[in-house]
Amino acid sequence: MRIGGWVMVPIAGCSVLAIAIILERVWILREPRVAPPDLVPEVWRLVTTDSLGPVNRRRLRAGSPLGRVIAAGLGHAGLSRAERLERIEETGRVEAQALERHLTTLGTIAAVTPLLGLLGTVIGMIDVFAGIDAGGLGNHRALAGGIGEALVTTGAGLSVAIPSVAAHRYLRARAGRLIMALEREALKLADALARNPDPAGPA
How confident is residue 126, by pLDDT bands cut at 50, 70 and 90? Predict the structure, then answer.
């Protein structure tokens, strides 16, 4: 921080923010939390036994993003398949935005930190050449040290940007897979309800 100058302050702030976003998204984007694998069979069991009352509906909405998407499609017994799909899509868009939250910020950090590092290097080189202009090239050790100090911010910016880019790509792909899983499981239930509108009918 001392060697790199004031540009190191925003780079350090970006690094802390990037770490916080990565840890939070890794925790949020867990498949058992987003799309529990046994949820659709359990919901269908409740539907076929006519046990999906208000209490279970509230529990379904509070349990997971997949539960909220399914609950949107089960809002009213008389809905057609098209109406169910419309409700599922509306809720799915909301849940997709929640799953992708903060990823744009992480991508911005990945793009900005190398530029901050470059800015710090340019400022440092300006100071080095100003010193050369004032004192000449007599002290080669001081000149090399000044150039080395100027490059510190570039190294710091890249050290934040590289893992941020990797994490951003990984987390965006992970969110995309989970969004597709939400749609797939909700559509399975919507199709099952369309084939068996009578809750007491076979699955």
Answer: confident
